[in-house]
Amino acid sequence: MGTYWQVSIAEKHLPIEASALQTGIEAELAAVNQSMSTYIPDSELMRWNRQRGSEAQTISPELRHVVAKALQISAQSEGMYDVTVGPLVNLWGFGLDKVQTAPDEDTIVEVLSYTGYQHLQLSAEGLAKDHPQTQIDLSSIAKGYGVDRVADYLQRQGLQHFIIDIGGEVRMQGNRFGQAWRIGVEMPKHSGSRELESVIRVQDRQLSMATSGNYRNFLNYEGMQAVHTINPKTGKGAQSSLLSVTVLHEDCMSADAYATALMALGDRQAEDFATRYDLAVLFIFAGEQAGEFTLRTSPRYESVLKGDNP
Q1: What is the pLDDT of residues 96-128, one digit of tens each?
Q2: Which domains, ranges and CATH numbers included, belong to the chain?
Q3: Quick one: which residues bind Mg(2+) (predicted)?
Q4: Is 260 annotated as ligand-binding?
Q5: How far is the C-alpha of 33 from the C-alpha of 150, rounded, in Å?
């Protein structure tokens, strides 16, 4: 998945050797990569991306599960969450190929003609697209799915107390030898320094957390700052005062995708969306002065912190 992973297990006795557990975890992550990576040329997803026809292609149950969740959140957000947005992200230089200048309007319009979740059709026969250039990039949801998959593997081994972190997407379960698991929510700092705003404690329950933000990933083009969260409808950076969102959810796949959706929705719509779908979210907004921040939470957030299920 192009990022780090770490797992901490709080069990007095392991059912199998630690080395065997690591091998099992690595096998789960390798399977996710082989299915959903855009960096592996022969991954299941890349093979689907290369096909040009409009016929439905048979896909694995795992890929179907993730694509179905992505399309659900795309519909909920009216297209502001979109797994076909990859070509627009690349156009602005946030993909593998770096660019020196911002794209012109004609190029953006051309790419918009084949991006948009409405170009995808998921059916009993498989996954189809109605434009040959439409492609899927699951980077906004696959890490979260990977976390859930590792958690399922650990549970199959009889483990109940652990914390999993894949590239900052986290799932906590059980407790740490009788104490709560603790994880901090980072404040945005352009300088790269780290300051924790709050600490989330989880004990004797299951909770996932995903954070998305624009404050570290941006580019400058001749005085114009472009952020990596792209508005799928305009093809341009989603400019807003919303700097970061942290989503708490039962499963990490949903937390991962909803965090991206909320950033794309921006300051005017994100809070309403979180309330409408009863999401537990911590929002960090830019303040009026440089270096100032405003924090707000959805109604569901505080109840989840107190112990309710998300």
Answers
A1: 666 667 788 999 999 999 999 999 999 999 999
A2: 49-129 (1.10.3980.10), 172-306 (3.10.520.10)
A3: 140, 256, 260
A4: yes
A5: 13
